[in-house]
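Q: What does the assembly look like in three dimensions?
Context provided by user:
Components: two
Sequences:
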Amino acid sequence: MIDPVALWTVIILLGLGSFGLRFVFTGLVGDRPLPAWVLRHLRYTAVAVLPGLVAPLVVWPEATGGQLDAPRLAAALVTLAAGLWTRNVVLSICLGAAALYGGLYLLG
Amino acid sequence: MTTETTKSIFWQGVRDGAPFILVIIPFSTLFGVVATEAGLSVFETLTFSVLVIAGAAQFTAVELLRNDVPTVIVLISALAVNLRMAMYSASLTPYLGGARLWQRALAAYFTVDQTYACSIVKFEQSPDWTVGQRLTYFFAVAVPICPLWYAFTVVGAVIGSAIPEGLALDFAIPITFLAIIAPMLRTRAHVAAALVSVVAALVLAFLPYNLGLLAAGILAMMAGAEVERRAEQRAERRAEK
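A: Here is the predicted structure of the complete assembly.
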């Protein structure tokens, strides 16, 4: 059982801390201009963080206990290819889901 | 001159946010289930989702709390998972920095993966938008996402029962993010950043407290910026000839 004091400490401080991280630049820096090299790095924040967030989930899926799994890998590749080719997010999700369930049905 | 009305921008935002409902509902339901299974009450689970409003960090915190990890470590780990929010905040600053303080505070609260991903693409495409129009779009993306995040946390907490594993809902998250990332790979610099991010995140996955992702993010940003700088230099040299 989780200790209620520890739990509420985490809920409140994590809430405040997460807000602080979100507020640090938008809120405190405001509209003061940022140097060009900073902006050049910031242009890549999304493509720098999100692929790294996804990669371990694809290669070591928690549902299979961290074992590389053919249907999940195929679904990831289909989604990525569909996204590159069509540039359509919803269509890519649908194709990826179809690949996942198709793969699970055929191989599962 | 503005050719788009506030109303049309609002509905654009809602439309762009709507596809994420597919991922928000299973993800928040799952959090509700996991949290109540770890012993949290429905009220504690909902408070968690409202105050923290960041799925990956919430899962991390509950998982570590369940394993009796010291409170300080729980906080550091979950905040490390959320460090990308600071990068989002920095990246939104050139677009939203001109807004009033309370508007920036509200935007900060609603800065999540989805509002960020949609907004940054839209703001780059629409350089003539005013700060007000950008805020309208940003909050509009949150409209179909954040209320459902709270609501389905409660649904998951109330259900409390296991979701059948055969549904493979675990993979809704990677598929959705891959579908968002792919259209972002517009230039060689973006592709380089993404590749460095993937390789570094996997190689550095052994680092504790998710520091690997943070390091991968920083390395990948540097890679993207460097490729862009070199491409600019090449373009300049060609122009001189």
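Follow-up: Chain A touches chain B through 75 residues (CB under 8 Å).
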